[in-house]
């Protein structure tokens, strides 16, 4: 069964800035990242540091055309190493993150955004 077939929520391509912080990590400083897709259940985020499955993250991002910042806690469900080639070789990681603590109203806003924009 493909990964997409296991999902409970529809996904939407979603490229926005995401601030993340590894909970109980060595560097508790928030870092900048970029999302790839989102659903009411979580998001895929591209980061430059390797994290393990099960890692908890504090997340902060905004939906397009919204003044509201969404703050959630997520759990890394999968990690995939991605090589990026530009002037020099770089490595990043796509991380599937499930929301484990998010205000119900924020989850509804995400769901509404996805349903309005999915094609």
Description:
This protein has 119 residues and is mainly beta. The protein has a single domain (3-117), classed as predicted glycosyltransferase like domains (Thrombin, subunit H), CATH 2.40.10.220. It has one helix at 104-117, and strands at 12-13, 17-22, 31-39, 42-47, 56-62, 69-85, 89-101. The longest helix has 14 residues, at 104-117. The radius of gyration is 14 Å and the shape is globular. The relative contact order is 0.22.
State the strand order across the main sheet: 2-3-4-7-6-5
Identify the quaternary structure here: single chain
Described by strand count, sense and barrel closure, the largest sheet is: 6 strands, antiparallel, barrel
Helical content class:
10-25%
The CATH class name reads Mainly Beta
């Amino acid at each position: 069964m493909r990964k997409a077939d296991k999902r409970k929520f529809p996904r939407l391509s979603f490229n926005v800035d995401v601030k993340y912080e590894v909970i109980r990590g060595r560097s508790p400083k928030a870092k900048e990242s970029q999302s790839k897709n989102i659903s009411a259940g979580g998001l895929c985020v591209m980061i430059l540091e390797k994290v393990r499955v099960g890692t908890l993250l504090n997340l902060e991002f905004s939906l397009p055309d919204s003044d509201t910042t969404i703050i959630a806690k997520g759990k890394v469900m999968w990690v995939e190493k991605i090589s990026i080639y530009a002037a020099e070789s770089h490595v990043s990681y796509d991380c599937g993150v499930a929301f484990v603590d998010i205000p119900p109203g924020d989850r509804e806003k995400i769901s509404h955004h996805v349903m309005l924009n999915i094609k």
